[in-house]
Design a protein that fits this description.
The complex is a heterodimer of chains A (114) and B (116). Chain A has 114 residues and is mainly beta. Chain A contains no helices and eleven strands. In chain A, the strands form two sheets. In chain A, strands 2, 4, 5, 6, 9, 10 and 11 form a seven-stranded mixed sheet that branches. In chain A, strand 9 and strand 10 form a beta hairpin. The termini of chain A are far apart. In chain B, strands 2, 5, 6, 10, 11 and 12 form a six-stranded mixed sheet that branches. In chain B, a hairpin with a 2-residue loop joins strand 7 and strand 8. The chains are: A mainly beta (114), B mainly beta (116).
Chain lengths: 114, 116
């Protein structure tokens, strides 16, 4: 168990409201990621972080911002949620041990924007 | 830009038979890695198997093997002796090597149904 938790796990909100999703890890991994999953699109990278205060955009970053002020937390913010941001959001960390460098995923956060 | 293609939206297989899930990729890099993940209906993402671009042998993990054909840029997942519990969505993913730019790009997935 990589000790990764996402909160909230489920959220329903209205268009135009701000939303923050939190990803918390307990094992000091350097890399953290936010993906969204939508039917027919697989998983698409929103933003990722390679250290405290070091972040970069993924392929679907418009409308999202992130922050990483400490190693264990990676926050994803929707400044003004839209219905197109209804999705399942996955946080992931990169394992540093072993050669494959696979990502380990959290359980997902289901966001519904009405 | 790197790209992962899974051309089979859905596949069916009989229990105890083998099945191949297709994955092709596009990159001009020489160093890269290929991954397969399983997502059951419960929603969690489970890492299955990894193949490095310089690996000479095809990767195997239990009933999973990766049929890596570098010249054809394909990395198909083979599941032997299918079980009912193998019914799930399967994703192929690729990462490029290099510095802090470590990220995985995923295909759209293949939904596998194992019939009794």
């Amino acid at each position: 168990d990589a000790g990764i938790t996402q909160s909230p796990r489920h959220k329903v909100t209205e268009t135009g409201t701000p939303v923050t999703l939190r990803c918390h890890q307990t094992e000091n991994h350097r890399y953290m990621y936010w993906y969204r999953q939508d039917p027919g699109h697989g998983l698409r990278l929103i933003h990722y972080s390679y250290g405290v205060k070091d972040t970069d955009k993924g392929e679907v970053s418009d409308g999202y911002s992130v922050s990483r002020s400490k190693t264990e937390d990676f926050l994803l913010t929707l400044e003004s949620a839209t219905s197109s941001q209804t999705s399942v959001y996955f946080c992931a960390i990169k394992f540093t041990s072993g050669r494959s460098g696979e990502l380990f995923f959290g359980e997902g956060s289901r966001l519904t924007v009405l | 830009a790197q790209k992962i293609t899974q051309t089979q939206p859905g596949m069916f297989v009989q229990e105890k038979e083998a099945v191949t899930l297709d994955c092709t990729y596009d990159t001009s890099d020489q160093s890269y890695g290929l991954f397969w993940y399983k997502q059951p209906s419960s929603g969690e993402m489970i890492f299955l198997i990894y193949q490095g671009s310089y690996d000479e042998q095809n990767a195997t993990e239990g009933r999973y093997s990766l049929n890596f054909q570098k010249a054809r840029k394909s990395a198909n997942l083979v599941i032997s002796a299918s079980q009912l519990g193998d019914s799930a969505m399967y994703f192929c993913a690729m990462r490029l090597s290099g510095g802090s730019n470590y990220k995985l790009t995923f295909g759209k997935g293949t939904l596998l149904t194992v019939n009794p």
